[in-house]
Amino acid sequence: MVFQHQSVLLQETVNLVFTVSQGIYVDCTMGAGGHSELLLQKLGSQSRLICFDQDEAAVQYGREKFAGDNRVVVIRKNFARLQETLEEMGLLPVAGIMFDLGVSSPQLDEAERGFSYMQDAPLDMRMDRTTDLTAEFIVNNWSVEDLAEIIKNYGEEKWAGRIAKFIDQARKTKPIHTTGQLVEIIKSAIPASARRDGPHPAKRTFQALRIAVNRELDVLADALDQSLNCLQAGGRIAVITFHSLEDRIVKDKFQSWLGKCKCPPSFPVCQCGVKPLIKLVNKKPITPSREEIEINPRARSAKLRVAEKLEV
Fold first, then answer.
1. For the segment 116-133, what is each residue's pLDDT rounded down to a tens digit?
2. What does DSSP say about strands 48-53 and 278-280: parallel, antiparallel, or unpaired?
3. Which domains are delineated in the chain?
4. Residue pLDDT, tens place only, 301-312
5. 94-100/72-76 β-pairing
6. Which residues of 9-23 are buried (b: 16+ CB within 10 A; e: fewer)?
């Protein structure tokens, strides 16, 4: 099976999440297994690596890739079920957890998945194809107001209202079934002067639909809380994000775990008793080098944040 994917911030992520050679580690977004493969090179014979992915193709590829390595378990689940799964397996606490968020190269490159605005394909965008909600359903059935809201909030698209209205006008004539149809509608909605510069005019709308279909932002904050619960003291969580919405959630969550005093400035001694749950391993997010971006342009927006759990 072909499942090619260039792992982003590979060395940086693995080096920072690794703390002990015989620990239990979790890759919440296995994909093509690049981060997992490198981490396994550092792990001892008594270690365990639990790999989650909700994409059937990725899971099949991962099981083939790591067949014969009894340290690895590949699970087809969304990381929203991280804590309950590890509890059921009796594998808590763990030494490290990795997240590589967003859509993988195979999902983008496989036209029939409907993630790419560069190829004409059915409007799908489901990472887990056993679920019911598709981009086609959203585009053809959600109200203009709801469409505008997700395109604005999840895509950070300034023309969200206009795009939603153009979608509504088009679907009244005939249903919108393909990515190609949607791209043309988006192009017609955005004024030509605004299309001359910047990314592809459909990029933000496609991002918004993908996030809505897969409930990406809904599950992320909770999964981060679960990760903290699952970590042992001294264990680390590493998260790679690819757009500002994801990064803001991770940044805010890490900030909330730092346990900053909430007492009024006038109090000479802290009375609230808040204690930090983590320390930041990197105070500023790590970004790809110029060399990595040249090799893999999809890495250009990536940011890596890493935190270490403290003894409480």
1. 888 899 999 998 888 999
2. unpaired
3. 10-100+216-309 (3.40.50.150), 112-214 (1.10.150.170)
4. 999 999 999 997
5. unpaired
6. bbebbbebbbebeeb
